[in-house]
Amino acid sequence: MSNPGAIHLATNLGGKLKREEVIDTIEKYEKYHANYGGDEKERKENYADMVNKYYDLVTSFYEYGWGESFHFASRLKGESLKEGMKRHEHFIALQLCLKPGQKVLDVGCGIGGPLREIAQFSMTSITGLNINEYQITRGKLLDRKAGVDKTCDYVKADFMNMPFPDNSFDAAYAIDATCHAPDVLNFTFNLVVVFSGYQKPPFDIDDVSLKVGCYKEIHRVLKPGQCFAAYEWCMTDSFDPNNREHQSIKSEIELGNGLPDIRTTTQCLEAVKQAGFELMVLECVGLAPKGSRRVQTLLEKSAKGLLDGGRKGIFTADYFFVVRKPRLDSSSYEAAGN
Length: 338
Ligand SMILES: C[S@@+](CC[C@H](N)C(=O)[O-])C[C@H]1O[C@@H](n2cnc3c(N)ncnc32)[C@H](O)[C@@H]1O
Fold this sequence. Notes:
Elements: H1 3-11, H2 22-31, H3 40-45, H4 47-66, H5 81-95, E1 103-107, H6 113-122, E2 125-130, H7 133-146, E3 153-156, E4 169-175, E5 187-192, E6 207-212, H8 214-221, E7 222-235, H9 244-257, H10 265-274, E8 278-285, H11 294-311, E9 315-324, H12 330-335
Parallel strand pairs: 1-2, 1-4, 2-3, 4-7
Antiparallel strand pairs: 5-6, 7-9, 8-9
Helix pairs in contact: 1-4, 2-4, 5-6, 9-11
The structure holds S-adenosylmethionine.
GO molecular function, one term: sterol 24-C-methyltransferase activity
Organism: Rhododendron simsii
GO biological process, one term: sterol biosynthetic process
């Protein structure tokens, strides 16, 4: 258990929420979900608001119960929870063959538990990308305490639309995070462009739609020939969308975890390929998970959904893959000025 998490939990439920905002926030959050009359379209359209409400509410609970890393991990016989989590993180570093000095992207970094562990283990410089401001504030503080603040940093942004130039990183990973994406391939992003002053805009539109998706964004910001590794949350191919019990388990997992939808393993694999990646490693491990009162109830429901999903074999939080952005062929290499 992390002491700072316990203090935050005792004194300040949720992230940057004021005490009086908690009830209103959880009510608005719940309304996005099927159990409270919400639908998938609305969750997908409002994914950023939904995810931020969720993490503002639960981050202190997570930190109290889980520590600094917010992901599942298998446990070997005799291994503590913390050791299992670290092994999970080291596994990613080893699968990505990280080398000292490399520039790495952590997509959806939480409060930076994996970032600090992997940066120290592999002597790399990691940028944590996160849409939630409160988590970034916690991450920066914990980085200073761990002494990795000179080599690692955080960027508050949406992984559907990353503020990095093309070909920026030597490696990227996502742990239990891209499951929050409304769409990993094609997502219509509405930018409202506001111009101030007398200068006329260079174009005649006030609403620009960009097609982006988080896998495509990761592909774009990785250098050619470099790899992306992920632990994804997926419905397995045993999931039957017409089975009411399966649907109800899926809805409970979405509600308890701030998810707009859960893709199947097949959809996930197809999406990484369509984003332009080559598949290097693929593994699917079964799930054996063990998280003011309403937030607690929300998390308890989530645990039930996760367990039921794992037991029925229709859900996994451990769909692991490593994919590579193809190397440039010699003509594109020369065209790129090399
Ligand atoms: C379950 S937590 C996992 C955090 C971290 N990977 C770890 O293992 O500790 C999911 C993370 O994804 C982030 N996230 C969700 N949607 C996001 C988005 N659209 N853009 C950036 N980060 C996002 C959340 O804020 C949260 O930090």
